[in-house]
């Protein structure tokens, strides 16, 4: 079966199910030799989405979803802005069951910028993936400086709401 590795807001299983339907299972995974960045420019100036980039010795923790059907990854494409905002790559994700090749979205060239921060509501989705993360990694995510006080119209433009993720 195909797999999808989520390191950003899709670590929230409820968000994934709402977007692509049920999955067979979700388990903790690690993308080695990469680091998590908040440098993917959103549609709103100054606001970022998560991204990963190569980093010797780095590790990105996240949720590895086993899809029920190969076409489910195509259902995720519009939410990830593929192929304009993110590219899809097949990379090994390390799990307690060994390495599993999975789809990973990485920001497309020309879509990143410096000095960006995620919205607080976006970061809450990452934190909702706590079951897939080590305590230390979750704590580091909780310390990420986020933008507070966005209005409802801006949140909608970002695909977010004020409701706390499940």
UniProtKB/TrEMBL annotation:
Record keywords: Lyase, Transferase
Naturally occurring in which organism (per UniProt): Halomonas nitroreducens
CDD domains noted in UniProt: GGCT_like
Keyword presence, Lyase: yes
Superkingdom assignment: Bacteria
Lineage, broadest ranks: Bacteria, Pseudomonadati, Pseudomonadota, Gammaproteobacteria, Oceanospirillales
Residue ranges constituting the Gamma-glutamylcyclotransferase AIG2-like domain according to the UniProt record: 4-109
GO molecular function, one term: transferase activity
InterPro entries in the record: AIG2-like_dom, G-Glutamylcylcotransferase, GGCT-like, GGCT-like_sf
Keyword Transferase applies: yes
Name under which the protein is recorded: Gamma-glutamylcyclotransferase
